[in-house]
Amino acid sequence: MTEYLKIVDFGPISEIELSDIRPLTVLIGQSGSGKSTIMKVLSLFRWMYKRVNLRSFIKHSKIKNTKIGFKTKPLLRASGLLEYLTPTSQIVYRNGPYEIVMKNGAASAKFVVAREHLSLEKVVFISDKRSIIPDLLGSSIDRHKDNYYLQDTLENFRTAYKFISELDLNFLGVKFSVLKQKNGINDFRISGQGINGDYSIKLSNSSSGIQTATSVGLIVDYYATKYNLEDSLNRALFSYFADNDNLKNFRAGMNVGEFPNRRVNIFIEEPELSLYPDNQIEMIDFLVSHCFSSKHQYDMTLMLATHSPYIVNYLNLLIARYVGNADDEISINPDMVSVYLIEEGTLINLKVRGNNGMPLIDATRLSDPISNIYDQYDNLSQ
Amino acid sequence: MSIIEILSNCVAPAVIKRREKQLGVFPDEVIVDYEIILDHIFDIHDCKSDGSIKCDRNSSDRAATYINGVPSAPYDLVFIKYDNFINQFRKSPKEDWSKDLKRADYIVTVLDSNNYFILHELSVGNIKSKGPDAKSQFIGTINFLMGIPEIKEYIDNCSMKKCIVSARGCDDIKPSPLGVAAGFSRPYKIIPNPCEFKVPSLNKLGFTVWKGNIVNIA
Asked: If both were cysteines, with which of A275, A348, B90, B193 could B212 make a disulfide (CB 3.0 to 4.6 Å apart)?
């Protein structure tokens, strides 16, 4: 179903409208322009939509008063977004015919998702503060509690390594592994081949790029290859019935396995964090192949906020490979991709037609600073 | 009414009306400064430097090149200094009737014709820093003008409505010394000049939005 988001007067956002959110959406823009705000708002509203789907499923199962809802301001507070709210703030999220509207600081979602539209949804946020995760793993201090997105990243990391004890991170040229020690504490290690031979070091002692990228690699690999959405809904239902004495009234109209739509939505802030350009490009190969080239029991979406000219330019190669039928290489259908520049609180769609008529991402904005540097250099040289 | 008359008789009072109660009387004389250019191919620059819109071909402060009709029959292009037009309502920081009004650099039309209505924002050469807010200049300018019935009617009757921001084109990019940053100039070479991009709020009003430094008036 077509997915739509409009944000008006919210934090750094003046007015933005994403009229048809593509499976791979990339946001670029100056620091503080609102990239993360858009990602956090979309992740929050997708989470609300997920709750409405759970509520709708239970309603279809003959329970009238589900007691499943959400309170907007606590959600905004937990997401670090409450300060962005103004008297004129408005957010509209649509998924097909269903609309969640936030006005006057309160979101309204008074609809029941029809059986044929029910969707199992998972929202995963990988924070730009993830570099601290290796330290948090070995620490008993809960320094992450005040930051929901870091907490979500940490919890997803913890979930992922329970299923993946070893993972080749080819885009980094290293291997991640988890060793259980006798004292019950996990030993997270990075191994590989260096100029002085094979090595194995603690994740927390590895380079900053490896630390930040390992979180991305592990979490995305888990959600692309190991995740079971049905188990997730069953756990949510179990939790719901444990908290509400409604099980006796429950008459399942459909099995969890019969949900017609399933989707895992991954948001990554600055995938390029601390990575050399070549590694950034290889990471995009990893993300695109995991999310869009391999088969899953569900659809996947990926939204990235980035400052990297390498990532944005590389998308053009992935598109060209697809258009040119380079079957043996990683590619992406241009219809699945959108890239937006956030400027002055509004959005500019950077997908255009190139000189050869092929879909193209206009990456010149990211080259302008380099051109300006050499214009000034030329002036001095003259 | 011609576009010059509309600006003088209808748009100027609308500018004043916004803040007349606070700021008082109408200025003695409203000036609509414009230039008519009949050349087939010519370059333009920011008129702040010497007061003229047209500049020497390929001069260092060239912002855009116009290709005007065919060599044997170029149009009479009317370039209105809209930024200057709005700025004249700013007597002083305290007496500014134009406060909060967005303003594109030029309005370009064809004399005695409803063929074209172009808003042109310059963002290269010595004024490249204006680039980031081109879109908001367009939206602000158009929303203000479309609120004035006479100019709304004029714009609605134009068959071609365009917003152009003169950003760099591939011909603007000089090679870096010894090619040390050559890769960064490659994206300019594959982007059409000009290149259309979508701005839904302007597209809804019938405007197409373009980025580049070649303007072809067919």
From this structure: B193
Residues of B in contact with A370 (CB under 8 A): 176, 181, 184-185
A12 contacts chain B (CB < 8 A): no
**Which chain A residues contact residue B199 at CB under 8 A?**
348
Residue A324 has a CB neighbour count (10 Å cut-off) of 11
Could you tell me if residue B150 is inside a domain? Answer: yes
Question: A371 to each of A239, A365, A368, how far by Cα in Å?
Answer: 57, 10, 5
In 3-state terms chain B splits into helix, strand, coil percentages (rounded to 5) of 35, 25, 40
Per the rule left: phi > 0, alpha: psi between -120 and 50, beta: everything else, A80 is left
Query: Which residues from A are below 8 Å from B139, CB to CB?
Result: 346
The verdict on pTM exceeding 0.95 is no
What is the widest separation between alpha-carbon atoms in chain B?
61
**Residue A296 DSSP SS3:** coil
Structural domain count, chain B: 1
| Minimum CA–CA partner of B195 in chain A | A352
Mean pLDDT for back-to-back runs of 10 residues, chain A (382 residues): 96 92 96 94 96 89 77 91 95 97 93 93 95 83 72 94 95 93 85 92 95 97 92 78 66 71 96 97 97 91 97 96 88 96 86 87 91 88 76
Sign of CA pseudo-dihedral A102, A107, A111, A116: positive
B65, part of any domain: no
CA-nearest residue of chain B to A343? B132
Note which residues in 241-270 of chain A have CB less than 8 A from chain B: none
Distance CA A339, CA A286 (A): 19
A346/B135 CB distance under 8 A: yes
Residue B128 inside a domain? The answer is yes
* 8 A C-beta contact, residue A93 and residue A52: no
For residue A382, what are the CA distances in angstroms to A372, B61, B173, B174?
15, 16, 16, 14
* Closest Cβ opposite residue A378 in set B135, B174, B196: B174
* Structural domain containing residue B150: 3-23+30-37+77-171+183-213
Q: What pLDDT is attached to residue B131?
A: 47
- Does some domain include residue B130? yes
* Block residue for tokens 């937990």: A78
Q: Across the beta sheet with A299-305, what order do the strands follow?
A: A119-126, A261-269, A299-305, A24-29, A337-343, A346-349
State whether A368 and B197 contact (CB < 8 Å). Answer: no
Contacts of B190 (CB under 8 A, 6+ apart): A316, A354, A355, A356, A360
Tell me how close the Cα of B121 comes to any Cα of chain A, in angstroms: 16
Which residues in chain B show pLDDT less than 50? Answer: 126-131
Identify the structural domains of chain A with CATH numbers, from first to last.
3-381 (3.40.50)
A260 phi/psi in degrees, rounded to 5: -70, -25
